[in-house]
Write a structure and sequence with these properties.
The protein is mainly beta. The chain is built from no helices and 16 strands. The strands form four sheets. It has a four-stranded antiparallel β-sheet with strand order 1-2-3-4, with no helix packed on it. The chain has a four-stranded antiparallel β-sheet with strand order 5-6-7-8, with no helix packed on it.
Length: 166
């Protein structure tokens, strides 16, 4: 491994395991390590999140950008589709090819080469600092924010305030 500071782990196809770290990413497969850094393709070496989509592309999330590796070809995207300063916290990929990203300005969905951005001011998130997200079997999107929980299933948004433990 490139670093002992591991920020995320993702199991891929063919028994490969990917590790995101502070100085790149590493892959472990069949007893062999390989490494990816800025010099051989990453847009940024500080990889916070890593995931594999249904097309077997590996997505490396770093700060405000994404590096996507598919069949030794690289693609790069700005999170949210713009150059605003984003800080990636989480990624979740649905089986229908929708890709969700939690960040410090809300959440963004990438689908069919288009971005949809969600925030407290334009869509009903309870808070803009989204720390984590997931989508359940019914297609409901759940967003864990610094202000509580929001859930979205097409419309309307629900804002949930879980009871505080004392």
């Amino acid at each position: 491994m490139l670093s002992s500071n591991i920020l995320d782990i993702s199991a891929g196809i063919d028994n490969e395991v990917w590790f995101a770290g502070s100085i790149g990413a590493s892959k472990y497969q069949s007893g062999t390590w390989s490494h990816i850094t800025f010099e051989n393709g990453l847009h940024s070496e500080y990889v916070r999140r890593i995931a594999q989509d249904i097309d077997n592309s590996i997505w490396f999330g770093a700060g405000d950008s994404l590096s996507i590796l598919n069949n030794n070809n690289w693609t790069y995207l700005d999170i949210g589709g713009n150059s605003e300063s984003y800080f990636l916290n989480d990624m979740f990929f649905e089986t229908n090819s929708k890709k969700w990203f939690a960040h410090n300005h809300g959440a963004s969905c990438y689908h069919n080469d288009n971005w949809t951005n969600y925030s407290s001011s334009n869509n009903g998130l309870i808070g803009d600092y989204v720390l984590c997200l997931t989508v359940d079997d019914d297609g409901t999107c759940w967003f864990g924010t610094s202000e509580g929980v929001s859930k979205f299933s097409n419309k309307p948004w629900d804002k949930l305030h879980p009871p505080m433990m004392v």
